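Sample entry (169 residues):
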Amino acid sequence: MAELNDTYVVHTAMIRCSMGMRETYLVLDDTHGVFLRQQPQMTVDDSVGEVNVRCFGGCYSMENPSTKAEADRIQKAVEEECPDTFLDSVLNHFTGGEKEITTQEAQEGVPRIVGVCTPNIPAGTKWDNGKEGVETRGMEPLLGGAKLRCIYGGEIEIITSGQVEGTGE
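Predicted structure, serialized as tokens:
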């Protein structure tokens, strides 16, 4: 990871969110005029949700209103369909109602609820790893391994620089 931390980041670097379903790309809609291997260079200011930081496929965070709404919808549907809780019904089926289940046991094997992913980065928030002493139109160039926080609790991290590896020719 130390090597990535010293590498300039360009358009199409891979990023992941701790609350996201999948990885996605960091994008730059309008170039700053600096290119590395014909790819536009990113800066620490390129941190706008749904502009630079795109959807991660879905969001697992219960702080996300979409995920919370989906959890509430599922809970209501289960309560309407089952006189007991769903977990009680399953437990009673296999144990005859004799075994109590712990919270940890209840959570194991239960699918995670996912809501709509809308990366929500507070205005003015910057990536935390820029090249000090160097400027691209007055902004620090972005380096790999940088992190950013979404208001829904996700930690977004750059996992590749986006630079195409040279062939040595």
